């Protein structure tokens, strides 16, 4: 099952893929494994596995996940599993990307617009005050449950460089077009609640058979942690194979945007 739901709106087809404007480079395919929520044990392990292959991990954390006020979201996102900004600053210092994954993992499409904006503002402020070197102009805001509307995304884009929401509907008829303007809306796909190793493998293989573009897969914890986890052995073996593909670049979402000036 793909995770939860997304709100479809006009312009969704611009969310998910592109061919870089740079013509003299060898990379045609870009992959971001976008890890959500902020599980302390899993995220340190994700970082260590990426480091074995000279890669940066894409880590998206719930801003209030470590606070005493944080309540469990469901049976997967529990307070005792979450890391704090001491952890996130350490991982960022090691070269990994740490981005916002909302203030409290609230589905913003199910609350009033006023509350949704307040929630996004809290997240932005807390990251600015607690994450070393954080600059919202380079940040990607990752919607909880990959649930958003065009109005919510427009508001988030007043504070962030880009937003990530759902976009798996584009899988069957994906077109890799060069955007006329800098890309701001990123689409992703996720699977769960059980292990999603096989689905991730299939999505990547199907993607590598295309002419090129950018695939963002939304994943969560490792070895039973989180909704739709990966096995750590699978992630290790996957990255060991992917780094050998010359035309593929495996990078966090923010680094792709920054490197290729999209």
Short description:
The protein has 262 residues and is α/β, with parallel strands linked by helices. It is 29% helix and 15% strand. The strands form 2 sheets. Strands 1, 2, 3, 7 and 8 form a 5-stranded parallel β-sheet that branches. A 3-stranded parallel β-sheet has the order 4-5-6, with no helix packed on it.
Total helical segments? 7
* Percentage beta strand: 5-15%
Total number of distinct structural domains: 1
- Structural class label: alpha/beta
Secondary-structure element sequence? EHEHEHEHEEHEHEH
Radius of gyration: 17 Å
Q: Looking at CATH, which topology would you report?
A: TIM Barrel
| CATH class wording | Alpha Beta
Q: Which overall shape is indicated by the principal axes computed on the Cα atoms?
A: globular
3D structure, described in words:
This protein is globular. The chain has a single domain, classed as TIM Barrel (Alpha-Beta Barrel). The model is unreliable at 2-24 and 168-181 (pLDDT under 50). The protein is α/β, with parallel strands linked by helices. 29% of the residues lie in helices and 15% in strands. Helix 1 packs parallel to helix 6 (232-242).
């Amino acid at each position: 099952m793909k995770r939860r739901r997304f709100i479809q709106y006009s312009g969704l087809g611009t969310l998910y893929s592109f061919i870089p404007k740079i013509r003299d480079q060898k990379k045609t395919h870009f992959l971001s494994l976008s890890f959500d929520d902020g599980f302390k044990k899993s995220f340190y392990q994700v970082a260590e596995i990426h480091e074995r292959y000279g890669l940066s991990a894409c880590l998206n954390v719930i801003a209030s996940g470590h606070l005493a006020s944080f309540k469990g979201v469901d049976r997967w996102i529990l307070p005792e599993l979450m890391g704090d900004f001491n952890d996130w600053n350490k991982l960022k210092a090691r070269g990994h990307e740490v981005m916002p994954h909302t203030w409290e993992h609230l589905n913003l499409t199910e609350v009033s617009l006023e509350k949704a904006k307040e929630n996004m503002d809290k997240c932005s402020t807390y990251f600015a005050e607690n994450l070393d070197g954080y600059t919202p102009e380079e940040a990607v805001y990752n919607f909880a449950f990959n649930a958003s509307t065009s109005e919510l995304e427009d508001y988030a884009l007043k504070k962030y460089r880009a937003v990530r929401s759902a976009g798996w509907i584009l899988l069957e008829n994906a077109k890799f077009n060069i955007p006329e303007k800098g890309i701001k809306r990123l689409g992703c796909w996720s699977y769960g609640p059980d292990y999603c190793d096989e689905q991730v493998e299939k999505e990547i293989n199907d993607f590598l058979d295309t002419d090129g573009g950018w695939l963002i897969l939304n994943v969560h914890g490792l070895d039973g942690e989180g909704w739709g986890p990966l096995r750590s052995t699978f992630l290790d073996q996957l990255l060991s194979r992917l780094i050998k593909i010359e035309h593929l670049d495996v990078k966090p979402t923010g680094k792709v945007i920054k490197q290729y000036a999209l």
